[in-house]
Amino acid sequence: MVIEVLKSKIHRVSVTESNLQYIGSITIDENLMDAANLIENEKVQVININNGERFETYVITGKRGSGIICLNGPAARKVQVGDIVIVLSYAMMEFEEAKKFKPSIIFPDPGTNRLQ
């Protein structure tokens, strides 16, 4: 049996930018991507703590050390700059493997979006 489990989580980061005119996605500081074990173009779920919105998009690599969390395209309508979001990704794996798997979960400083 194969199940879907949490793979990566960036817990509580601040939206720094919102760009409605971009094609779509979420731009994430490369330091945060590395720490959370995310790669460019990976599908993610974004949960907006401020308004309860949940949506899916994909990751674009942002400038390393910039703290950028930018929602692009239609997703930009679901956030405002300053909103606090959680970014999640999931993976499919065999049930026995999933029991032993440990997701990458990070807790950046929501004021700067940098690792503490």
Polypeptide structure, described:
- The relative contact order is 0.36.
- The N and C termini lie far apart (38 Å).
- 11% of the residues lie in helices and 47% in strands.
- The protein has helices spanning 30-36, 95-100, and strands at 2-14, 17-19, 25-29, 43-48, 54-62, 69-72, 84-94, 104-106.
- Strand 4 (43-48) and strand 5 form a beta hairpin.
Molecular shape: globular
Beta-strand content estimate: over 45%
- Total strand segments: 8
Q: How widely separated are the two ends? A: 38 Å
Count of DSSP H/I helices:
2
CATH topology: Barwin-like endoglucanases
Elements, N to C (H/E): EEEHEEEEHE
Helical fraction equals 10-25%
Name the poorly predicted regions. Answer: none
Question: Taking strands numbered 1, 2, ... along the chain, how are they ordered across the largest sheet?
Answer: 2-6-3-5-4-7-1-8
The biggest beta sheet reads:
8 strands, mixed
Give the CATH class: Mainly Beta
Residue-averaged pLDDT: 97
Based on helices, strands and strand pairing, what is the structural class? mainly beta
CATH architecture verdict: Beta Barrel
Instruction: Round the Cα radius of gyration to an integer and report it.
Output: 14 Å
Please sum up the structure shown.
The chain has about 120 residues and is mainly beta. It is about 10% helix and about 45% strand.
Task: Give the SSE layout.
Layout (H helix, E strand, L loop, with lengths): L1 E13 L2 E3 L5 E5 H7 L6 E6 L5 E9 L6 E4 L11 E11 H6 L3 E3 L10
Parallel strand pairs: 1-8, 2-6, 3-5
Antiparallel strand pairs: 1-7, 3-6, 4-5, 4-7
